[in-house]
Amino acid sequence: MNVLNRIKSPLASAEVKVYAAISGVVVLLMMVFGLVMRMTQGQMLPIEPGLFYQLMTAHGIGMVAIAGLGGSAVMWHFLGKYVNLRAGFAWANLAFFLAGVVLVLGGIFVGGFAAAWTFLYPLPANGMGMWGRHAAAAYMGGVLLVGVGMLLFYLEAARAIIQQYGSFAKSLGWHFLKSGQDAPPATVIASSVVTIINILAILVGAVILSMMLINLYVPEIAIHPLLAKNLIFLFGHVFINSTIYMAVIAVYEILPQYTGRTWKVYKPFVWAWSATCLMVLTVYPHHLLMDFAQPLWMHIMGQIISYTSSLPVLALTLTATLGMIYRSNIKWDLTSALLVLSIFGWSAGVIPAVIDGTIAVNQVMHNTLWVPGHFHLYLLLGCMAMILAFINWLSNQEKAQGFSALDKAMLWTFAISAFTYALIFLMSGQASVPRRMAVHLPQWVWYSQAASLFAAGVVLSSMVIVVRALAGIIKPVKPA
Amino acid sequence: MYQQVAWIVSVVLIALLAIAFIYVAAHSSKNGDSAKVAAATGRWRNRLLLGVTLLCLPVVAYTLTTLPYARHAISNMGVVEVQAKGYQWYWVLSQTELPVGRPIEFQVTSADVNHGFAIYGPDMKILTQTQGMPGVTNVLRYTFEQPGTYKILCLEYCGVGHHTMMSELHVVAQ
Predict the structure, then answer these.
(1) Which of A106, A124, A150, A337 lies 20 to 30 Å from B36, alpha-carbon distance?
(2) Distance CA A354, CA A278 (A)
């Protein structure tokens, strides 16, 4: 059965369009923050370290949140074709999101909070005069509000999936492994995994944020820093990975329209997603490999699962995407090209990420620019390319369009700029340039100067893509 | 050494990936038999999974034989102990002149927030690192092979003075 035949409703709902529009606008702003940071490190802008670290905090939390919102738009839109989602929960999520963003931005740009998006305990309570506890509370309270909204979103997704399929076991396709009959759609399998892991991750995040909020005002109630770090990275790792798992649904659903081939669910695909469900929850210790006081088994588990967790879904999605387009007479346009590019970006980013998950490598790469190198590959060239493709597809009435010269120019500008930008991060990392530093040593400055050029290319191309797409969403062109 | 290995392996594998995408994209405009392509895709998927498994298994196994965690390291014979404590934004070390060729045991902790204790060589490449965490002592062992001036940089973001948090170690021949 063709994927399109299963779709119940014709075009995107209002909440999906609003999610997409906000995602497009905010991602541009966050990209500009990234460009300003690289130019500052390249000594091309006279930004004070205090402001640099505020921008760094805003860029980090902003990108994580907007990848979450953009991914949610993709998941809500396509999951809604298979299960009955209630729009009120999407609007409630958005209300919490916007309230949280106001608090976060207030904490950062009014209160001066700059403890990085990871709010690593006990830094938020130790601003050394740069920010006070109210600013820290505004930031962490804001993140908590965003989390509450997301939790409502996933609880509604869980309810709808279970109502439609009977249980997560069925929506994950476990019955299909036995019988080979009635496989759920790829979208439902991916959405089930994201729903399960993100409900757990957000609850963990809410626990540590609540504990840290209490600690801000009652310092006597202290938290063990190693426990806090474990909880923060469990939450953060799962949440950011989930953004890709949501956004990749765009590849599963949209690409078949361009090739006329179906995204077939087969047993390895079901196995891979179920394995991912477990492994993504247990891989986070690879962020703590340099915390030598962690139990040894957690270090070893972190390394082994780093290798195993990324590969199943990625290898299957990678080969299936290439098989989807090979000799398919695909209709190339901006949407389809961005979707194919996104799978390249995701796959490419996993390579240095897995290598960094090796303890021996991590010992000389941890917290260098190698880290933003790999995550900019799979988040900027991967996840963001998926979200940009989705927004562009929405703006074109969910159909293929022509591939204009401007589209091609922007696609190649984005692809080359984003790839080279990430590559310079990796090159800097292998030269031991630290991440999260406002000022670099003189011998490291040229990396940032070169990176700024390509960051500008990313901003320019994304701006053109987003502005044109938003114009199409706000004022759709009627078909002739 | 690991920096170069990581860089070269990453570049080579990403290049192979790019070649695969370019090849497939270049052969996407013709119509092929979907059933045959699907079967070939399945074969390539299995090859990829098998190849990645065969490549990764020995790498994982080998690299797990050389863990940096000191409690599993060698004996305490001849070890020089150095206490290192991080503050916003400086290091306090019990000694900064260290001998060549003898194992140094850095007992790293923090007085306030999380810090990163990274030792840079004279060429400003990272040699080793651990975290400095309040209430926790991380034990890092390292033997300097060459005399010279080494730097300690904080690699865990610790506030507005993070980038200024550097100290020096002087490694001398005995």
Answers:
(1) A337
(2) 17
Among partner residues A303, A329, A352, which is closest to B10 by beta-carbon distance? A352
Residue B153's DSSP bridge partners are B118, B166
The reported pLDDT for the residue numbered A226 is 97
Helix, strand, coil content of chain A in percent (nearest 5): 75, 0, 25
A143 Cβ contact partners less than 8 Å away, ≥ 6 residues apart? A61, A100, A104, A119, A205, A209
Adjacency order of strands within the sheet including B126-132: B97-99, B166-172, B148-154, B115-120, B126-132
pLDDT band of A335, cuts 50, 70, 90: very high
Strand pairing category for B148-154 and B115-120? antiparallel
How many residues make up chain B in this entry? 174
Tell me the ipTM for this assembly.
0.95
Assign A74 to helix, strand or coil.
helix
pLDDT tens digits, residue range A56-69?
999 999 999 999 99
Q: In degrees rounded to 5, what are phi and psi of residue A454? A: -75, -30
H helix or E strand, kind and range, residue B9: helix B2-26
Domains located in chain A, CATH noted: 14-474 (1.20.210.10)
Apex CA A174: angle with CA A168 and CA A178, to 5°? 155
Q: How many CB pairs under 8 A join A and B?
A: 235
SS3 assignment, position A277: helix
DSSP 8-state assignment for residue A476: P
Distances (CA, A) of A465 to A67, A412, A462, B62, B130: 17, 12, 5, 46, 43
State whether residue A353 is helix, strand or coil: helix
B64 and A359: CB-CB below 8 Å? yes
Are A304 and B60 in contact (CB < 8 Å)? yes
Summarised one tens digit per residue, pLDDT across range A273-302 is 999 999 999 999 999 999 999 999 999 999
Residue B174 CB coordination number (10 Å)? 8
CA-based nearest distance A222→chain B, Å? 11
Question: Element (H or E) spanning A192, and its range?
Answer: helix A186-217
Identify the residue among A51, A120, A224, A292 best suited for mutation to test binding to B, counting B beta carbons within 10 A and taking the highest.
Answer: A292
Sequence-ordered list of residues with C-beta below 8 angstroms from that of A114, at least 6 positions apart, any chain: A50, A53, A54, A56, A57, A108, A127, A130, A131, B159, B160
Contact flag B21-A344 (C-beta cutoff 8 Å): yes
CB distance A120–B156 less than 8 Å? Answer: yes
Whether CATH 2.60.40.420 fits B80-172? yes
Of B9, B49, B136, the CB nearest to A225: B136
Domains in chain B: boundaries: 2-75, 80-172
Q: Which candidate, B118, B55, B24, places its Cα nearest to that of A362?
A: B118
* H or E element in which residue B171 lies: strand B166-172
With beta carbons less than 8 A apart as the criterion, state whether A351 and B12 touch: no
List, in order, residues 6 or more apart from A51 with CB less than 8 Å away: none
